[in-house]
Specification:
Blueprint (H helix, E strand, L loop, with lengths): L23 E3 L5 E5 L9 E2 L6 E2 L4 E4 L8 E2 L4 E10 L5 E9 L19 H10 L12 H4 L10 E5 L9 H8 L1 H12 L6 E7 L3 H10 L6 E6 L8 H9 L14 E5 H12 L6 E7 L7 E6 L4 H7 L9 E4 L6 E2 L13 E5 L3 H4 L10 H5 L6 H9 L3 H6 L10 H5 L6 H18 L1
Parallel strand pairs: 1-14, 9-10, 9-12, 10-11, 13-17
Antiparallel strand pairs: 2-8, 3-5, 4-7, 5-6, 7-8, 13-14, 15-16, 15-17
């Protein structure tokens, strides 16, 4: 089986055996659900309900407030309890709509289904926008904008990111195994927006069963093919994925469309299919609850707004007291200090570990081994960028192409001195991005 990849990267313990063979389970939330108005890149959504209103599952409760914004929909039926600031996984307090679940799960009427081949480009884009779909691989960029490049006829590849390279995560794998027709249906829908493009299902070769399953499913599709990628982290990062699949390079000042590509995550494409073919807005996703501190690691079909604490309890609770809790995977996830936070459109996993390896191995002086440079997929100099960031030397940081860092964590992972390379570089990048935004 031919495989494709990029330069650099690492091979961490993947931990996927904990949940790889665990079928998706539906979990119904209890009590209140919290819907942050900022579940995407861009302007927060604006509430269109008020305290005391009764809402239905699938009903729009907040609308987009700007071009880069998407609406938010209720995932259960119940009464609006409050509109107030609530904490989210990243630690911030975010204005949110709180709904008291009535346990009936009554649904609002769906939107009228569309036939992609018989719908206009404008109709499809508007449906994806109204469904509140965002990039569900973690970034949360509004999908309707990603699918609206200035020159759609220049798009040559629509890439379905099926790599799921982040350790421990298996939600995309289970979606491919159990509902591959939704993934392919979403990809076919997106291809209707780009008549000159070819669709590629890009799957890491540690998922050979999915490679074969998808090949069989698209064997009669002239515009879709399956490509096996070498199993390596971060194979699923957008820049690395595009290079592995097409041989084309992009940098931090470019968009995938500049290289003739559009990239969408597995769950995102499944959401596109549901919105177009079934008229359903985005009100849930697959979330992996895993780690050696979890009693019964599993994959849940979760309604947005559900508390992390409920998901942990649904997985049997903790087997041992966790030393580390993470929203997402161990490489790019966010450390948690509170489980009373809601699952959102971009929540991919909850990871509970019995050991905190980072804290157990404090950093020491750099030994100049160069391993961080060898594994960096962005081909920058992490050790030099960290020095510049620590000294607040913005000029050197930019001269050394610090903005090309994709914050994948490979350098921190491989460093024998356990230097916080990624974290330090990320802080400087955040400052630079803020300055650009304010110019």
């Amino acid at each position: 089986m031919a495989t494709f990849t990029f330069t650099g990267g690492v091979h961490p313990y993947d931990g996927k055996e904990l949940t790889k063979d665990k079928p998706i389970q539906v979990i119904l939330p209890q009590g209140e659900l919290v819907y942050p108005l900022s579940q995407h890149i861009g302007a927060p959504a604006v509430p269109i309900v008020k305290k005391g209103d009764r809402v239905l599952a699938g009903q729009k409760i907040a609308e987009a407030s700007a071009f880069v914004s998407v609406p938010v929909h209720a995932s259960v039926s119940g009464v609006v309890k409050a509109i107030e600031s609530r904490r989210v996984a990243a630690g911030e307090m975010v204005q949110s709509i709180v709904v008291e679940n009535d346990g009936r799960y009554e649904e609002a009427p769906p939107m009228a289904p569309l036939v992609p081949e018989k719908s206009t480009r404008e109709e499809l884009i508007e449906r994806i926008k109204e469904a509140g779909i965002v990039g569900m691989g973690g970034a949360g960029f509004p999908t309707f904008i990603k699918l609206s490049p200035p020159k759609p006829d220049k798009i040559e590849y629509v890439i379905a990111n099926c790599s799921e390279c982040e350790p421990y995560l298996t939600s995309d794998y289970r979606r491919m195994k159990e509902e591959p027709e939704k993934l392919v249906g979403g990809l076919k829908t997106v291809l209707c927006l780009f008549p000159k493009a070819h669709g590629i299902l890009a799957v890491e070769d540690n998922k050979k069963d999915c490679v074969e399953l998808l090949k069989e499913l698209v064997k009669d599709e002239k515009r879709i093919s399956v490509r096996a990628l070498k199993t390596k982290y971060p194979q699923g990062a957008e820049r690395q994925l595009i290079y592995a699949v097409t041989g084309r390079r992009i940098n931090s000042s470019m968009l995938p469309a500049d290289a003739g590509c559009v990239v969408n995550n597995v769950d995102t494409l499944a959401a596109v299919y549901a919105a177009v073919a079934e008229g359903k807005p985005l009100t849930g996703r697959i979330i992996t609850v895993t780690g050696d501190a979890i009693r019964r690691p599993c994959n849940f079909n979760v309604r947005t707004g559900t508390s992390f604490r409920e998901l942990i309890e649904g997985a049997g609770g903790f087997r041992v007291t966790p030393a580390k809790l993470i929203a997402g995977g161990p490489m790019m996830g966010i450390s948690l200090f509170d489980l009373d936070v809601p699952a959102t459109k971009t929540t991919s996993a909850i990871l509970a570990l019995s050991r905190d390896d980072v804290s157990d191995m404090p950093s020491t002086a750099c030994i100049r081994c160069g391993r961080c440079v060898e594994v960096c997929p962005g081909r920058v100099l992490p050790v030099k960028l960290m020095e510049a960031a620590l000294h607040g030397d913005e000029e050197t940081f930019l001269k050394l192409n610090g903005m090309e860092c994709c914050e994948c964590g490979c350098c921190s992972y491989i460093c024998p001195a356990r230097r916080p390379l990624t974290q330090t570089i990320k802080s400087m990048r955040k400052q630079q991005l803020a300055k650009r935004k304010n110019r």
